[in-house]
Amino acid sequence: MIKYIIIVVVVLLALLMAGLVVRRKHNAEIGRLDKEKLQIQHYPIFEELAKVKALNMNGQTEELFENWRNRWLDVVDKQIPKIDELLFDAEEFVDRFKFNKATHTERDIEQELAKCEQVRVQIITELDELIGSEEKNRIEIEQLKEYYRSARKTILAHQHSFGPALEALEKKLEQFIPKFEEFDELTKDGNYLQAREIVLQLNSEAQEIFRLLNDVPTLLTEIQTKIPTAIHELRNGQREMEEQKYYLRHLELTEYLNGLENELEMLKAAIAELNLPAVSPRIETINDEIDHFYNLLEKEVMARKYVERNCSGMYSVINDVMRLTKDINDEVAYVQHSYRLQDREAEIPKVGLKHLEVLQRRYELLSTRVHEEKSAYSSLQEELKEITDEIEQIAEEQEKFSNKLKNLRIDENKARAELETLKRLLQDTERLLGRANIPGIPEEMDARLEEAAEQIFVVVQSLQEVPLNIIQVNQHLLNAKQSIEETHEKAQEMIENVLIIERLIQFGNRYRATNRQVHENLLEAEDAFKKFRYIKALEDAAKAVEIIDPNAIKRIEELVQEQLLTK
Fold it and tell me: What is its subcellular localisation (predicted)?
């Protein structure tokens, strides 16, 4: 029984301790909330609002002041007492260990405090905006008035610089005066925020006026001075060039300049209306167009110099190339008796002559146009350059073909010399096989020698053909070279293998009596050797020696190679 009593007492004590801990936490939270409430309650909001009294307490300022005061009185007189009641309720719930209700009440207090803080922040923000607007207005309006006076002086002092835009600029400046008066009236009535809107609007208009005062004189200088001067220079240049027999109608310069003069009047009217966005980009385009016409006139001058320098000499150039091409055509007829040419190659001089005849007619027409002086020199230059380029291309092609014809005899001699070299190499291969101490020549090697001899015969036959087809000769020569060189390499390889086989059998003979496997392998090698099957004999002899000493094979190969090099 006592045991159960002790357990109950322990449980009750534990619950009591837990309750005390939770209550302490709630009391701490309630203390924090009460502290926040006191900070809001005692915030010197009315001292902040007193700053407004330094302004004109009329109109909007008076309305804002009353609104802020009433909103804060509502916080102090209604919301703060409500929070006090909630704090009292929370303390009572905690004392009675009603922690859930205490938690809900604390949340309600938190929400109410947030509402009060929000009202405080809004009042201070709006107050700072009002006071800041008054300060900014006072500074910026003085700057705007100073700018207005400066702009006015600029317009009066430089009226000629603004030309037809003067009246519109003066009207824009005159619009500042009623805005200044409206600003002063709003400020006097305490409507500082509305006055701020006037200041911002004036700032925007002042920037526009500043841009106009800078851009209008520049654009007018372009329209009234620079572009007219360029027009005058272009007209004079055109007249002087036409007096010197230049053909310039294709440029349509007169029509352009007449239209440009009319357009300048329209652009001047646009400036009078201060429509600069429509004028400025067009002025840039006009300047580019004028530069383009200057370049075109200069191009005509340079083209005339080119034509005068090159046109007269072109006649002899065409004749020289035509004479060269005819000579090559005659040479083709002669060469074809001895050498065979492809149809396409044989036609090269004839095609060149036909092309030259066309170019000659084009040149004659060009020469006529030059003397008539009714064509633009730029187009004449372009035509002359095309004729020149085509003639140079034909001359280059004919010269290349002529060199090819000359090289036919050289190629034939080279082919005959190489044929003799291949014949000697084939003879050397046959002598090499004849001098070698080998049982006989395998059928495969005989077939290679026969094939090489046939290739030589084919080359000889192709060299005896009339007319000679040098391309075919070179192809047969290449086939013969590959066959003979390969046959020579195979013969050397076979002789080397025979020497290695003999050395391997000699080395293995010392072990035949003591090693049966060596003996049998050597018997097979000797049998294959007698039948001219040298590759099979080499494999069997190597197997035999490898049983005895695997390194011996490499030593024997090195000895054989040294022996062949000393021969």
Answer: Cell membrane
